[in-house]
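Need residues for this backbone.
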C-alpha cells in the first residue's frame, strides 16, 4: 500500500497575526513620522539640527533597549507579554504628538515610542521563530516583513490624503494615528497564543558569559554579515534627498518612500519562500548585486524616472535580504537565546546604520550625491568579501529546531 505524501506545511496563523499587528502599528507610526519633521519645524519652530538630534536620540534609545528586552524574554521564557508592553507603550504615545505644544513634549513622546519599539522588537522576532516550523522560517519572516512594510507605505499615503482633506491640520491627522495603534495592541492580545516552553528547560541569565559563548561562532558571523550589509546600505533619507534634486515636485517627494516600500512589501514574501530552498549565501550575494545596481542608477541618473528605478531596485534589495538575515539569526542561535540573539543583532546593525549614514552625509556635503551612491556601491564590495569569508555552515540554511 502506497502512503500518500504528506500535505505541504502551511505558515501558522500566528505568523499572519503578528504580521497584521506590525502592519497596523506601522500605519500609525508612519502617519506621524512622515509629518513630524514638518510639524516640528513649521508649527513648533524647531531647527533642522534639533530634528536630527531628536531622531538620533530616538533610534539610539531603541537600539539599547532591544538588547535588554531580548535577553529578558529569554530569561522569563515569555515573549508575548513583553511584545504587548512594547506595542502598548507605542500606542499610548500617539495622543502626546496630537496635544504637543512644545518641542519638549514631542521629544518625550518620541523617546517613549522608541522605547516601546525596543521592548517589542527582539521578543516579537523570537516569537516568529518559535511559532514557525523550521522548514518555513524564511517564508514566515518574509511574510511578517512584507505585511510590516505594507503599513510603512499605507501610512504616508493616508497622511497625504488626510492633509489634503483637512487643510494641513497636523493635529487631526495625529489623532487618527491612535486608532490603528490601539487595534494593533488588541489584535496581539487576543490573536496570539505563545508556544509552551519544555518543562525541562531551565531558566538562566542569557547575558552570562557561559550563555553568550553558547551563541557560537556561526551566530557572530551572521551579526558581522548583517553589519556589513547595513554599512553598504545607508539611511533611506538619502533616497528622499536624491528625489528632491531630480525634478520631482516637492509635494510628491514623500511618495518616493511609498514606492520603495511597495516594492519591498511585494518582494519580501516571495524571496522569503525562496530562501527556504536555496543557499543563503547565494541569495545574499544576489541582493548585494541588486544594491550595487541601485547605487549606480542613483549615482548617474538625474531624471525622476531614473530615480524611481533606483528606488525600486533598493526596495528589491530590501525584500531579498532583510527577512533572510532575520531567518539566519534564528537558524544559528539556540532556541532559548533567540531573544538575546536578536537584541545583539539589532544593536550592531543599528550602530552600523548610524555610522553608514554619518559617512554618507559627510560625503554628500563634501563631494555630492553621485559620489555618495558610488561609495555605497564600493561598500557593497566590502560586504561581499565578508559574506564570502563566512563559514559555509552559517550561510547555507542549516536550521536550529
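Answer:
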Amino acid at each position: 500500500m502506497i502512503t500518500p505524501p504528506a500535505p505541504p506545511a502551511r505558515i501558522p496563523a500566528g505568523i499572519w497575526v503578528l504580521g497584521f499587528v506590525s502592519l497596523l502599528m506601522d500605519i500609525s507610526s508612519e502617519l506621524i513620522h512622515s509629518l513630524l519633521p514638518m510639524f516640528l519645524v513649521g508649527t513648533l519652530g524647531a531647527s533642522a539640527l534639533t530634528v536630527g538630534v531628536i531622531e538620533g536620540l530616538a533610534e539610539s534609545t531603541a537600539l539599547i533597549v532591544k538588547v535588554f528586552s531580548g535577553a529578558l524574554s529569554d530569561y522569563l521564557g515569555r515573549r508575548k507579554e513583553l511584545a504587548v508592553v512594547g506595542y502598548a507603550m507605542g500606542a499610548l504615545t500617539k495622543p502626546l504628538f496630537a496635544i504637543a505644544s512644545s518641542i519638549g513634549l514631542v521629544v518625550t513622546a518620541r523617546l517613549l515610542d522608541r522605547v516601546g519599539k525596543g521592548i517589542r522588537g527582539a521578543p516579537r522576532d523570537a516569537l516568529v521563530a518559535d511559532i514557525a516550523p523550521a522548514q518555513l522560517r524564511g517564508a514566515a519572516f518574509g511574510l511578517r516583513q512584507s505585511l510590516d512594510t505594507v503599513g510603512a507605505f499605507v501610512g504616508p499615503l493616508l497622511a497625504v490624503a488626510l492633509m489634503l482633506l483637512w487643510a494641513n491640520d497636523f493635529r487631526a491627522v495625529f489623532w487618527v494615528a491612535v486608532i490603528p495603534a490601539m487595534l494593533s495592541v488588541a489584535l496581539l492580545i487576543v490573536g496570539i497564543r505563545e508556544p509552551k516552553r519544555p518543562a525541562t528547560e531551565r531558566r538562566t541569565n542569557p547575558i552570562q558569559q557561559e550563555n553568550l559563548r553558547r551563541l557560537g561562532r556561526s551566530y557572530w558571523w551572521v551579526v558581522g554579515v548583517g553589519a556589513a550589509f547595513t554599512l553598504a546600505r545607508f539611511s533611506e533619507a538619502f533616497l528622499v534627498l536624491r528625489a528632491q534634486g531630480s525634478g520631482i515636485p516637492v509635494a510628491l517627494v514623500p511618495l518616493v518612500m511609498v514606492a520603495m516600500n511597495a516594492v519591498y512589501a511585494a518582494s519580501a514574501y516571495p524571496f522569503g519562500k525562496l530562501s527556504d530552498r536555496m543557499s543563503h549565501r547565494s541569495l545574499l550575494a544576489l541582493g548585494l548585486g541588486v544594491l550595487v545596481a541601485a547605487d549606480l542608477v542613483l549615482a548617474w541618473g538625474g531624471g525622476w524616472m531614473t530615480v524611481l528605478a533606483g528606488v525600486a531596485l533598493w526596495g528589491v534589495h530590501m525584500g531579498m535580504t532583510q527577512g533572510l538575515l532575520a531567518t539566519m539569526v534564528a537558524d544559528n542561535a539556540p532556541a532559548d537565546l533567540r531573544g538575546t540573539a536578536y537584541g545583539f543583532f539589532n544593536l550592531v546593525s543599528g550602530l552600523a546604520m548610524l555610522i553608514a549614514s554619518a559617512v554618507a552625509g559627510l560625503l554628500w556635503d563634501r563631494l555630492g550625491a553621485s559620489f555618495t551612491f558610488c561609495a555605497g556601491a564600493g561598500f557593497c564590495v566590502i560586504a561581499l568579501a565578508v559574506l564570502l569569508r563566512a563559514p559555509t555552515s552559517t550561510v547555507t540554511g542549516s536550521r536550529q529546531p
